[in-house]
DNA sequence: CGTGGTTTTGATTGTTGTCAAATGGAGTGG
DNA sequence: CCACTCCATTTGACAACAATCAAAACCACG
């Protein structure tokens, strides 16, 4: 397991997760590398005033490079920081009694993987790197602090939690009510769309560095069946996955099979602002 | 469909389950009937200062009695109020293209069924009464306003959204990774526990006014298979469901089959308070 | 005493899981 | 540069859980 841990702040010699953000308009430190991706993500769904953006950008964090399989949160173990995906792919999962697992969320660049843990630091779920990834660990205290100082941020955080919920809801619906091909197709449509929105690919060609076993855990299937289902889609939609890179010739056919409709991703900025 | 709608405003000479103790110091209006259930629910997971409780209790709302099948929110239709369950049972659902549906959440007394809609008024999901129910409609504007005025409330709302998410996550895991008996047993364990916590029954004997068809929609099964599975549990755990009332002789056996562990319900009040 | 919805039962089909083994590819050390 | 290993992918044969189709029994309600 690779732990290339290092301080993310530029001109400091100090270790530890010590320093606090300067929230005000003062002579700010250069933004923490990676943090701007999170701000972009939030602004996808919320209108944030400039000072709120600045406050977020000035949050310090600890950058970490982790290898595939590295656990960033464990069910039942309290944590005091959230995990921002700077690059790579993380998964949220539920562990079953018999050892099998169900992946309940995938997180790509710009996602704060466990924003949930800010109000609820003792998670019932786990977070794991599904591929080699770069993450930025941001302390709950700091996040709560900007959230308290800027009501717009509090609302944006809440809103992002709801978006996550909406995605999970669709996921559950697919698990309960659709067959293997639909489920796989839907996952690919979703991740393609999300990658495109995040600016790291097109929906017909994007990175998804997951093994078929991990896909199986996400889709509630077995590895064997994922493989067979993929062979089907390969034929009907010109799908190919090689070296963690997805490519689809006939995206519309894929979306058709998936009954894909992206409204559940809540990509329109929600109107309602704060009341004065 | 019965629509006994009425304004729940204070100075109406109205009858009903009206008057409440005055909580705050100020010359407050009598609390809206039903609202105290929501406050109890929030206080299960969050510590709320007195003035925040008072603010919540003084929120106005419109009481509604709805019959089974009544839709309180429709996917893709913007709404401007949230739905508090005063009594009965609501379900959140996802509609599939072929007309089948998946229920993704059940809401009992005290639950704000779509707190989600406060930051995201255009839902991708629907809310429906699974049984005759009494609900209290509370405007988003009011909820956002108390939330902005009381950071503790904002955090409590966010936290409740996370709890809902955690439950959904477990639901998804069960849909993806367990068989019919486990799934049904788990649902019964969960609803029993939640009913007990909400103070409306014991986990071995509580109301769950759902038809087997609705259960099937919640469990991702067919009516037929729900029925067969129930017959199995009837034998192994002394389960009986009659007239919407569940009774279990051997609760431990049921929990065993379900691999039930209630930590995901997040019933411990989360410690982290606001930073000053 | 009918009527409509819900529950129950039976027979059969089909999607997916299980078990097992072969193939392929990337990285490692001799 | 070539075995060798580890892991991921692919293929096959078979079993099992759950869906489907169909109809009967039951129950609350007017």
UniProtKB/TrEMBL annotation, chains A, B:
Question: Which parts of this chain are annotated as the region Disordered?
Answer: 1-33
Keywords annotated in UniProt: DNA-binding, Transcription, Transcription regulation
Which Gene3D superfamilies does the entry link to? Jelly Rolls (2.60.120.10), Winged helix-like DNA-binding domain superfamily/Winged helix DNA-binding domain (1.10.10.10)
InterPro entries the UniProt entry points to: cNMP-bd_dom, cNMP-bd_dom_sf, HTH_CRP, RmlC-like_jellyroll, WH-like_DNA-bd_sf, WH_DNA-bd_sf
**Can you give the residue ranges of the HTH crp-type domain?**
178-252
- A Pfam family reported for this protein in Swiss-Prot or TrEMBL: HTH_Crp_2
Top-rank lineage group of the source organism = Bacteria
PROSITE patterns in UniProt: HTH_CRP_2 (PS51063)
Protein name according to UniProt: Crp/Fnr family transcriptional regulator
Which species is the source of this protein? Answer: Novosphingobium soli
């Amino acid at each position: 397991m690779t732990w290339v841990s290092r301080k993310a702040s530029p001109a400091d010699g100090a270790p530890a997760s010590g320093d606090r953000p300067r929230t005000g308009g003062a002579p700010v430190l250069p933004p923490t590398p990676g943090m701007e991706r999170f701000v972009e993500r939030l602004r996808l769904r919320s209108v944030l005033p400039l000072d709120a953006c600045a406050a977020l950008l000035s949050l310090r964090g600890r950058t970490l490079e982790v290898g595939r399989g590295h656990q960033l949160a464990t069910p039942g173990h309290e944590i005091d920081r959230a995990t921002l995906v700077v690059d790579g792919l993380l998964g949220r999962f539920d562990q079953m009694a018999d050892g099998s697992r169900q992946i309940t969320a995938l997180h790509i660049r710009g996602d704060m993987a466990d924003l949930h843990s800010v109000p609820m630091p003792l998670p019932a779920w786990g977070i794991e790197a599904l591929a080699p990834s770069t993450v930025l660990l941001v302390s709950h205290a700091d996040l709560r602090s900007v959230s308290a100082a800027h009501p717009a941020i509090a609302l944006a955080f809440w809103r992002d939690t709801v978006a996550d919920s909406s995605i999970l809801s669709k996921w559950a619906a697919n698990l309960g009510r659709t067959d293997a091909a639909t489920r796989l197709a839907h996952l690919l449509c979703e991740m393609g769309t999300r990658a495109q929105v995040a600016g790291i690919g097109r929906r017909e060609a994007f990175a998804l560095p997951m093994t078929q076993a991990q896909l199986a855990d996400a889709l509630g299937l077995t590895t064997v069946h994922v493989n067979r289902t993929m062979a089907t889609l390969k034929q009907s939609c010109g799908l190919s996955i090689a070296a963690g890179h997805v490519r689809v010739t006939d995206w519309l056919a894929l979306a058709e099979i998936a009954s894909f409709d992206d409204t559940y991703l809540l990509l329109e900025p929600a109107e309602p602002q704060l009341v004065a």
